[in-house]
Give the backbone structure.
Amino acid sequence: MKSCKKASFLMSKQLDAPLSLTEKLSLSVHIAMCKNCSRCNQQLKQIQNTCRQRHKKEIEDTKQNH
């Protein structure tokens, strides 16, 4: 992968849609070599998981109140 900018784009893209095999491989290789992008990717995954858990809890709370 040519740059961290491209890696950042792919990290963002994977939050919304699956990456192609080529994109996945490129991102994986870059993340393996770049400490900053690896950290950023982990943070994005944590944020995504937290949002999903929060959304799931809100749905459960809504079901219990109706």
Notes: DSSP finds three helices and no strands in the chain. The CA atoms of residues 27 and 33 lie 10 Å apart.
